[in-house]
Amino acid sequence: PGSPAGRAVGEGSPGGSGRRVFSPAGEFREFSRRQLRDMERLFRQYDAGKDGFIDLMELKLMMEKLGAPQTHLGLKNMIKEVDEDLDSKLSFREFLLIFRKAAAGELQEDSGLHALARLSEIDVSTEGVKGAKNFFEAKAQAINEASRFEEEIKAEQEEKKKQAEELKQRKAAFKELQSNFTQ
């Protein structure tokens, strides 16, 4: 639940308001799981109200801490550029749109969102949006990215299995030692 692959901050309420649960890994396949975790960590860091949204004042503080303070109007324009539900605050999904647009080169060089993406220490350019030139390239890219996620998940599962096996071996060795002392 706390990872980007599960229900994300500010999206889909447990009360069942009819909205589907947002899956960052499913929708933002251009980013690795690590990048998504980093972006979620950054989002949570500046979500001072812990309400699952970054409002105008939280965005103001964020931009000041990143060393790129904005005017009140500049902050409003930053939110407006990715605010799909027009609630004047950023949900985690809308926050991720900033990085998608930055990686695709869709942000003005002098915009606050460009500064946020550039200064946030999350490098989306290394793996970012790989500008699919045509339908078939986009299709192949989606398949490759899905398999990359599968590989990452398998690697994590293998590591957990390995750790469980090591723990099992340590417990067996300990019991063997313990039996030598109880005789």
Structural class: mainly alpha
The residue fraction in helices comes out at: 55-70%
Helix tally equals: 7
Mean pLDDT: 78
* Sheet with most strands: none
How many strand segments?
0
CATH top level assignment of the largest domain:
Mainly Alpha
CATH superfamily of the largest domain: EF-hand
Query: Which parts are unreliable, with pLDDT below 50 for 5 consecutive residues or more?
Result: 1-17, 126-136
Q: How many structural domains can be distinguished in the coordinates?
A: 2
Give the overall shape: elongated
CATH topology of the largest domain: Recoverin, domain 1
**Radius of gyration over C-alpha positions, nearest whole angstrom:** 21 Å
Verbal overview:
With 183 residues, this protein is mainly alpha-helical. The protein folds into two domains: 24-120, EF-hand (Recoverin, domain 1, Orthogonal Bundle); 126-182. 58% of the residues lie in helices and 0% in strands. It is built from seven helices and no strands. The longest helix is centred in the last third of the chain and has 48 residues, at 135-182. The termini are far apart. 26% of the residues are buried. Residues 1-17 and 126-136 have low confidence and may be disordered.
